[in-house]
């Protein structure tokens, strides 16, 4: 199989990205719930000790799905002290809304998201952003689920961005296309 194709002036890593998505998802599915919970706890400890997190009042998080560091308790805990903001899928884009426990609804891909009753937040208001990914490397290059949502959102963020993942999802090199937006740092466990 050809590892990549050329399209115009771009090298498109579509095959490599898909192979990497598959292999990482398979490895993570073999982690036990205990392993995932322990690693998640370590990740959120590290985030809580990050100066940028401590200093920020308005923080973008995400509502975790299977295979991602578990965020639900962390979101709930910090929403009592800070403005915790979550993404909402609208068409091809993510918009941002404040997390309020009693104003969540099921959205695209069956993921819980803030309902329209919660305040919309402008990306420029975010002071620290925690970004999920299927895989990261230590240069901050990020692989998502293949829809490019965060590549479209991140240019609008004016704050430090931090990728989070299980160690299993940290790889030597994530294939990177011209539109891929890296994160500033990666926290993993
Ligand atoms: P992911 O980042 O979720 O792993 P990809 O980087 O493979 O996914 O991108 C998926 C698709 O999203 C690509 O076809 C790409 O053209 C599109 N895309 C990414 N960033 C942008 C952008 N800023 N504007 C328009 N389309 C984009
Ligand atoms: Mg991308």
Describe this structure in words.
By secondary structure, this protein is an alpha/beta fold. It has one domain: NagB/RpiA/CoA transferase-like (Rossmann fold). 26% of the residues lie in helices and 25% in strands. The protein contains five helices and 13 strands. It has helices at 14-29, 33-48, 51-55, 72-78, 149-153; strands spanning 5-7, 10-12, 58-60, 83-90, 93-98, 104-106, 112-114, 120-121, 128-131, 135-136, 142-143, 161-165, 185-188. The protein has a seven-stranded mixed sheet with strand order 8-5-4-3-9-12-13. It is globular and about 45 Å long. The structure holds adenosine-5'-diphosphate and magnesium ion. Magnesium ion (MG) binds at residues 144, 148, 151, 180.
Question: Summed up, what is this model?
Answer:
This protein is α/β, with parallel strands linked by helices and 189 residues long. It is 26% helix and 25% strand. The relative contact order is 0.18.
